[in-house]
Structure formats: C-alpha cells, structure tokens
Amino acid sequence: MINAVLVFNNAGQPRLTKFYTQLDTSVQQRLISEIFTLVANRPNSSCNFLPLPPLLAASSTSSAKPGAPTAQHNDTPSLITYRHYATLYFIVISTSTESPLALLDLIQVFVEALDRLFENVCELDLIFNFETLHATLGEMIVGGVVVETGLERVVEGVKAQGRVAKRPVNESGVGGRLSGLSGAFGSQNTVGPVWTGR
Amino acid sequence: MFEKSLYDLIRGLRNHKGSEREYIQESLRECRREIKGQDMNLKATALLKITYLEMFGHDMSWASFNVLEVMSSQNYMQKRVGYLAAIQSFRPDTEVLMLAENLLKKDLTSPTPVIISLPLVAIPHVINPSMANSLLSDLLPRLTHSNPAIRKKTIVTLYRLALVYPETLRPAWPKIKERLQDENEDPSVTSAIINVVCELGWRRPQDFLPLAPRLFDLLVEGGNNWMAIKIIKLFATLTPLEPRLIKKLLPPLTTIIKTTPAMSLLYECINGIVQGGILDGSEGMAEGEEIARLCVGKLRSMLVVEGDPNLKYVALLAFQKIVVSHPHLVSLHQDVILECIDDADISIRMRALDLAVGMVNSDNLSMIVETLVRQLVNAPIASLADDTSNDRGMHGGVEPLAESDDEDAEESLRNREIKSNKPPPLPEDYRINAIRSILDMCSRDTYANINDFEWYITILIKLIKACPSVNTTGADDTEIGAQLANSHRDISYDIGQELQNVAVRVKSMRPEATAATQTVLTLDTHGQFFPASGNGGQGVLEACAWVCGEYAEYLTDPDAVLNSLLYSGGEHLPANILAIYIHAVLKIFALVCGNQEIAWSPPRRTNLTLLMAKIVYFLEPLAAHPDLDVQERAVEYLEVMKLASEAASGHIVAEDGDFAGPPLLLTQAIPALFTGMELNPVAAGALQKVPLQDELDLNAPINENLANILKQADEDDSMEDVQDSFLQFYNERPESSAPTPEAAADRLDVAARQEATSYQNLSDDDRLDPGAAAQKRAERRDRNKDDPFYIGQQDDDYSASSRLHNIIRYTNGDDLDIDSIPIMDLDLEARSGSGSRTPLDHNRPRKAAQRKRVEITSEETIGGEDDKSRSISRPDMARSLPSRVKKSLLHIDSSGLGSLSLEGNSRYGELDIEQREAEEKALREVERLRLEMQRASERIQAKEESVVVRKKKKKAKPPVLDVEEPSVVDQGDGVVKKKKKKKKVLDGAEGGESPSLGFGDGDALSTPEVKKKKRRVVGLKEEGSGG
C-alpha cells in the first residue's frame, strides 16, 4: 500500500503532505527534508526511484534485500517513486505490494487531474488551493489504497464537492506567464512513450 | 474585514520575504484568537490557515478540539476544512477522538454522498481499535450505497479498520466478497476491491484461493491495467499454494506479455511469473521453456532500451528475483547487467551491484570487482559538508518561504524541468555498499572465487582509498542516530579484517600480505593509500598493525615500520587501534632485538637503547590513556621496556674480537612472549563444540578455598607464613594467647601493618621455609600443567606452544589475534609487577612472584576473555537487535491481520457488532416483555385512578428490571461485557423516568420520555437489520 504522498517544490517547500500512517509533525518534516536531499541531487536523466532515505533505511536494512517476500517486508515502506514536473516534485512512498511503474502512472494521473481542474495547472494553483489538492488526492487514494485511476472520475469526484477556485488573477503579478505553454498533458507522456498503461 | 483568509495568509507570506518566521508567529497568534470565537466562518478559516502552516511543521495539536467543532459544522465547505484538519493533525492518541466518534457516525449516515465521503476518507487516518469496533456497524451498510464512489471508499476504510482491529474483517469480508462477485458492479469498485484483496492477500493467501476463478475472469476480461497488475500480484501469492493455477495462468499471462502496450503491465506479468514461482512450476513443460525465455528476453530488452532508466531499474529488480533460483538464466545476460554497474544513475547502480553479488563466479569476479574499484577510486568523495547544506532539517524548522521564484511557481507543470546534469558524487552508503559487496563477493565460500590472492591484496589496498570518512563525533545521540551510526560502521575495519584473514589463512601469501600492510603503515607512503581528506580508511590500520606485528619476520624494513608506528601521532588514533599498535610495536621490537647471533657490540647496544627509549617515549603518554585496554598494555610494556633497557645497559659489551652474547632478556624473554604455535583460523562457534569431558563437573567448585588462595596469591611467596598466621588470626578463634578481644578496626590495622612489612621485607627470607615452598610450587605446576592461562616457569619446559594450541582450541576463532594477546599480558604483568616492586633485585623473587601472579591473572583472564568474546559479537548484535525491535517509520503493523482466519469460526474476542446483534435479540425480547407488562399495567390502569398509578410507578419499577435482567442473561451467553452494555441500556431507560411504566400512563411528564424511548428502540432495530 501507499504510505505517504508528498509534493514539494524545487526548494523543498512542502505543498502537500499526506501520511497514511500517522507520524509526528517533526518526524514528517525530517523525512520530507531527507527525501528532498535525495531527490534534489538527482540528475534529470536518472530513473524515478529513490534509494530509501536514512530515516526509513535504518529500520528496514535488517529485513532482507528487496525482493525477498517476507511478511515483514511487505509491511515496510520499501519503494520511493517520484516524478518531477516543472517546479514540483511528486513523491509516493509505498510498500512492495505496489507496482513501481504503475505508481509512476498514478502520479501522472494525479497531475493530469489537477491540470483538468485548474486548467494549465502550476505551482501557484496548488499553493492557493491546497484544499482542492487534498480533495483530488482523496478521490484517488483512500487510506493508502488506490481507489480510482480513471482521470474522468477523479475530476468528477472533485467537482462534485464544489466549485474549484481559480487562482486569483492579480496574483500572477509578473504578468501573463501562463500563456504559450506547450501542449496538453494527455498526449504527452512526459517520461516517454515506452509505456502507456495505467 | 480584519481577518485574513488563507489566500491573504499566503500572500502575506510572499510579501514578508525575509521575516517569514515573525509573520507566521503573528498569524498563528491571530488564528488562535479567531478559532476561539463564535463565528463559524472565522473558525473554519483560521483552521484552514493552521492546517496550511502545519504542513511546514507548525504543531497544531492544540487545536484538536476546534477541529472537532469545525467538523461538526452544518456547512459542507466548513465541514470539509474540519475533516482535512483532522486528517492532517489527529493521531490515534488524540483525545478528542472519543468525541469525534458520534460525529463520524452521524456523517456516515448522511443522505448527501459528498458528506459521507468525508468521514470515509478521514477514518483511515484516525482509526483506533475501539473506534473501529463501534464504527463498523455504520460502515457496513455503506457497502451497498447507491453511489459507487461511496462503495469503493467504504471498502478501503473497512480494510483500514481491519488493520487496527482484525476482527472487524469477519463480518465485513462476506459483504466485500459479495461486491467482488457481483458482475454488474461498477468496474472502479471492483478495482478498489482488488486493491484491498491484494493487500490482504499476501498475509493469508489461503483464505483467498476460493476467489481465484473470479480473479481469473477479471484478468482475462482485461480493461483496467491497474487492476490487472494487482490481480497478477495477487496470483503471485496464490500460486505457491495451488500449483494447478500455474497451468491455467500461463496462457493469459503469455498473451499479455506478447500483446500489452502497457509496459507496467508487461513488467508486472514477468514479475508475477517470477515471484509466483511459475518459472519453477512450469519447468519441463513446453510452455514453461517458452515463458522463461520470453520473460528473460523481455527483461533484457528493457535493460538495453535507450533513454528509459526506469525500465532498467525495474528490470534489474526482476533479474534480482530470478537470480536466486535461476542464476544460469541471468548470467546469460551478464553483459548488459554489468554495463549497468557503470550507469550514471546511483539507483540503477545499486540494483546492478546487488545483482552482481548474486551472479558472481570465478570467471567474472575480477572483471566485476575491477569495474567497481575503478568507479570507487575515480569518483570524488562526497564531503559531509555537502550533505548538511542540503539538509534543511539541520537549520532548524522549515519556514514556508516566500516564493523567491515567483516566476517558477507559475511555470506550468507540463514542462519538465531540466536540472543540472552534473553527476553527483558517489553517496556514502553506495560506497559502503559497494565495498561491502566486493569483500562479500571475494570472500564467499572461503575465497572459492579467487584465483589470484596477490590481486586480491592489491584490490584491498586500493579500496582503502575509497573509504568514506567516518563521523566520529557521534553528536547524534537519538535513537535513530545511533542506528544510523551502526549501519554506517566504518567499512575500513572490514577491509582490514580481510587483509588479516588472507594473511592468516593463506600462508603462501604472508610475505605479500605483510609487505602490503607494511607499505600501508609506513608514514612516507601514507598519502598514497588513504583518502586525501577526512579520516576514511583509518580502520584498516588496526589489521595492518596486527599483521605487521604477527608476521614481523616477513617485514622487509622493520625499522621503518617501527618508526611509523611510533611516530604516527598515535594519541589521535581510536583506542582499539592504539591497543593493537602497542602490541605490534613490541612484536617488531622483539624481532629487531632478538637476534642472538649478532654480537652485543657497542653500536648494537646504542641502537637498541635508542630504540627502547623511543618506545618508552611512545608508551609513556599512553600509560595515562583514558581507554583501559590501551592504558593497561602501555603500563605493562613500559615496565618491560624499563627492564630491558636496564638489562641492556648492565650487560657486558663485547670487547674487540670477542663474542659476547646479548642479554638474554632481549634475545630470549621478550621474543618468547610472542612466539609460539601458529595461529589458525577457528570456526565461529567452535568453542561450543568442544566436548565436555566426562570427569569434568562444571558445577563443582574449582577449589573450595578459592577465595583464600586468591588472597594468598596476592602476596608474595615469602609471606606464606605470615599469611598462615594472618589467616589463623582471622579465621580461628583466638585462644588464651589473645585474651583481650580486639576491635575489628584494630585487626585491620594489624593486617595492613603485616602486609606493609611483608612488602618491605620482600627479599628477607628468614620466614620462608624453602622446602615447603618448593613443594607447593611443584604441586601448583602440576595442577596448572594444562591450564592454558598458566605460564610455566622459564626453567621448565616452556610450553608456550601447547598453551597457544589450547587457546586456539578454546577460543572463538574470529579474533585470533586479540585472543592471543591477553595471554601475553599475563606474562608481562607478572614481570612488570615484580619489576616495579624490586627494580634492582630481579632474580629470584621475580620468578616466585611470577608464578603466583600468573595464577591470579589467569582467573582474571577467564573473565576478561569472556568480555572479549562478548565484544566480538557485540557489533553484530548492536546492529541487528535494535533494528529488529524497532519498527520502521510508516510501518503498518498487520501481524494481527495475518493471524485472523476468515474461514474459521473461532470466536475469541467477540466483535461489537456481533455483540450488538446478540443484544438486539435480547432487546427485542425485553421489548416484548415490556409490552406484555405494559398491557398488563394498562389493564390495571383501566381499573384504577391515575394518582394511584403514579404512586405505583416507583413500586413497579424494580420488578420490571428483574424481569429484564434474566432475559438478558439468557440471550447473551452470560458474557460479562455484554451484561454491562445491557445494563447501560437499562440505565438509560431508568434515567428517563421508568419508561416501562411511562408507556402506561397518560401523564404529561412522562410522555416525552415515552417518545424518546420509542425512537431509541426503533433506531436500534434499524441498526440490527442493517448489521
């Protein structure tokens, strides 16, 4: 199952933290910071899987190497999948019962759903509408288990909860930066055309 | 408006660049004020702001009651804020949870789907066992809600309930199964069920075998890739239990592998085939061959495909699972796998490294190892400073910074940001991992894969340079920090261990090994072998020093090594290394000075005296070292050196042409400390296998009089008589000769005085009976003949070899060197002790003292040796134990769930809902009785006046209860807990002014009560039917 979903920006500022196992606020922050350290150092050409940060690794090294399906192992977070979109990192911490490639697709669906909801989503949308961000995630993952992977239904579910606020116009201060950005998400699988399933 | 919205807060943050902290504190104060007000809108807004700040680490547990207030709001948007705050901030031990329970129940039964969703999503985050118990009855009916979104969320929530309270699964499972079997169910609900079943599946696969046909249909129907992946994962846990499944699964899986466009599904198919043991199970069949070839072929193409590191990564993961059972299949693709060891991506490298360890053999060992070594040596070492600067946690809390990059923030997420492409320096844990893997690969099966040990030694020496530096400050004393320290134990010690191992085990390589360690130790060449910065690789010095000392005869330049050891700034080395250094110094010194053939000429004397002075200079500061081991050894050897230099200066120097032998102390005594039988490797645990001799009774006291002997032995031989009288004095009742009873303190004084005199009169033999002493000596020698800790007299047949032999036999062999050292201590301590006592007269008394001393110290050594063996195993234990005990962060404990059988009917610990069902029955029964009574009372009422009725009310009450009570007991199997519950219901009824009679009278006071009661009963009935 999924243990946590995190979103933070290139500076490590959290934009969404959702832990499906409760942790102390301070430990949460420490974990975020450790993962940020890991992820920020990775070149873009690297794969989207992170080694476990010290906070998680310390406790799981005793359990066997990944791949050995021990009961203990299946309960312990062993997989950190991330994707990097523009200014934001999307992180999913999960146990070995999740499929790594499928999680990448899940993140993609999440971002696409946000894009639908906000129309050309950007970090600012998420900052100012962090309730909607949570609501979207809530439509996809409940209690660490994925309940919906269909884009349409996720968007529907969020919309059913009420109008999605748009980013305040005057906030874009610097000017019409939103225009002129390249094509729609749906067709552009950012990691490459190699797998398309979800 | 004065109050700020979340929007204002965020904008304010952006406007307070540089002073965010103050701004946040100010805002938090505002929120505290706002949240206490009456205005619900204000409250909700404040809560939203607090929740936002919580994301940055600002604790909001103080607001938990306010969270609850907002949760109970009538307004949906406010409610949603409340629920979000609860999800983010409540912990299972949050106290207000108890109060939230009713609210959750209420919202679960709301007619509006979006409102039902709120508690459904929130419950997994806040659930605790007692809540699970009581919420179950409200959740179960939601499984049949008309809205599929509600149904699927309910299923997941039920799963989380089962995690904290496994028994809840028993009533829930049949209903979930019903949903799964329903072909008309909404596909997304089915998918959610599959997800949950997949989570449950690996814990108790046998319970899910009956689902196999339905799962199979779902897999073949296809459609949802996500679901297909989960089904395959589930099947992978089922096939080991039901081998017939394999045959059935092969065709659809092959089809999927061949046809699916989704790489994730393809990969999981292969993974499922590997993990489910289908490769093994289908061996021999034609399809089996085909599928194995297919899988491995696909994996290979995933490895070679350009531009997708993710596929490489997962392919390596899959290979790693195959390599356990089918190494030959994997080694066919060695070429592509080994390429991955050099991949730019650390994650991929790590996987490839793990895989390489699995598939190594004597042919590819040197290639793999050399690749790794090249990689390690060439990459820059990540400095600690790099890491800490990245670690925000080190700089106090995180503040939601004003966005310094407004423009970035507006960049559409569609653009994939390109980060700098500079390769990161190899992270420490990768280095450690790689070095450990190399050592592991090479030393496997007692060096079965190694053909050329000279090569191995060069590799080991090269590795020293690649060692990451070690943080010795140990500032992090938290639990997690300690664990980290353990897992990052200095790898250089392991390298040293290997060097030592080769030197000990491979005799023919000893000259080479010694030469290698010699160069490592020699200061002039230090820079070549060790990392340029930091203290990495230091641990290897321990083993190097040991090898140089133990095999000093192979040293090409002992003087240089000795000098390096003496001038290495030893005080700064860790204590364990220093302790080895001290020994090594003495061993090499023994070699240098021990040559009997060279005449004792003035130059030689000068040389040796100088050398000894150097050693003394080295040892002297260490005699006050804080580490006991170092201190002890330093003190002992210091005395030896003093003795030796006396011997050297007092010895007659050879005149011209004459041959004068060097002092025996130098040529005989000191080298004899270190010569003996060769050390051989002993298997771990060999000690346990030493058979217990028949005549050996471990429970029998070694000597009844042990305490006295010890005490006695503390003194010198010359005191024996004194001792006797002393003992007599203590132990025997004074006879008439001592008429006046003495005070205890006086006796102590006497003892002290006697001791003192004996020390002073050490050489005074007048009290010694030479004959008796000799006899005792002989007896003792006899007794100690086989004692490995006993060192015989020098005029005896010096049996060092048998001693060492015994040691080897008796000790737990891993740290042979260490084990052998305490034995040497014995001898030295004896000498040094006597030496210090009689600095001038070192002939006979020393011998006597030595014998005595040995006996005592030998006892201590047994204890000491125990300590040693414990310390050997301690690092392992320290590493494994806490980690085994401590649960991982984010770990979900499902052990309870694993032990719950869904099929079985074992009813330990009844569920609330089951209990409630029983209660319902009881209640209905009570209700029936009540109605009967009511009717009866009505009949009475018809006859009598209302005033009388009111009087009767009080009287009639007890009988009613009496009637109810037994009926409850009858229904409810006499479970105590049930009774209590039941009583509560009754108490409630009583509080409502005797409803049983209330039914009867038309009295104004009791009518509302009647209504209430009725409602309650109806409510319970509903629940009952729902459950």
For the structure shown, list the relevant keywords.
heterodimer; A: 198 residues; alpha+beta; Beta-Lactamase; 5-stranded antiparallel beta sheet; two-stranded antiparallel ribbon; 37% helix; globular; disordered C terminus; B: 1027 residues; mainly alpha; 50 helices; 67% helix; AP-3 complex subunit delta (chain B); protein transport (chain B)
Task: Write up this protein.
- Chain B: It comes from Tothia fuscella.
- Chain B: Residues 20-644 form the Clathrin/coatomer adaptor adaptin-like N-terminal domain.
- The complex is a heterodimer of chains A (198) and B (1027).
- In chain A, the strands form two sheets. Chain A has a five-stranded antiparallel sheet with strand order 2-1-5-4-3, with helices on both faces. In chain A, strands 6-7 form a two-stranded antiparallel ribbon.
- Chain A has 198 residues and is of the alpha+beta class.
- In chain A, strand 4 and strand 5 form a beta hairpin.
- Chain A is 37% helix and 17% strand.
- Chain A is globular, with a radius of gyration of 17 Å.
- The two termini of chain A are 17 Å apart.
- Chain A has helices spanning 25-40, 54-60, 71-75, 100-118, 123-128, 130-140, 151-160; strands spanning 2-9, 14-19, 49-50, 79-85, 88-94, 141-142, 145-146.
- Chain A has one domain (2-62, 73-171): Beta-Lactamase (2-Layer Sandwich), CATH 3.30.450.60.
- Chain B has 1027 residues and is an all-alpha fold.
- Among the domains of chain B are: 202-314; 686-690 and 709-884, no CATH class; 912-1026, no CATH class.
- Chain B is 67% helix and 0% strand.
- Chain B contains 50 helices and no strands.
- Chain B is elongated and about 140 Å long.
- At the A-B interface, strand 1, strand 2, helix 1, strand 3 and helix 2 of A face helix 1, helix 3, helix 5, helix 7 and helix 9 of B.
Describe this structure in a few short sentences.
Chain A is built from seven helices and seven strands, in the order ββαβααββαααββα. Chain A is α+β, with helices and mostly antiparallel strands. In chain B, α7 (113-126) packs parallel to α9 (148-164) and α28 packs parallel to α31.
